[in-house]
User: What shape does this take?
Amino acid sequence: MNNNDIFKKLRVALQLRDDQIVEILELVDFRMSKGEIGNIFRNADHADFMECGDQVLRNFLNGLVIHLRGTKENPKNAMDVIRQNQEVVKKNVAEKSKASFKPDTEFKPKPKTDSKKKPFNPKDNKKSSQKIQVVEKVQYKNGKNKK
Assistant: This one.
């Protein structure tokens, strides 16, 4: 099990979003963008995959302690913080399930005013049947000299 697997499992277990992870890392003055965090959570065979280093995981764990327990001056109950995260996740899931695609205005096609036009018939247009060469024929040498 590598650092990426540990980071993924903690994210799922604590139901953390990428922006929350950024905030947790900022608690210990470690700056990381959402894009970099997303690259850590990608599959290992993806082109943008990024290995999670020891420093990133260490700073995340130190920030997570502060996030869940608080500081000496301002202590928190860890279970309360986890419950708040769960409520936010449930609320977001409920909003997504309620929201369905409903356009603001219904589509109403415009009535056709000019009925004197003939319908399009490709056989009528003789000029379009002629092939027009747009690109010139180019010979590629690819840097090799032929002898």
About this structure: The mean pLDDT is 80. The radius of gyration is 30 Å. The CA atoms of residues 110 and 117 lie 16 Å apart.
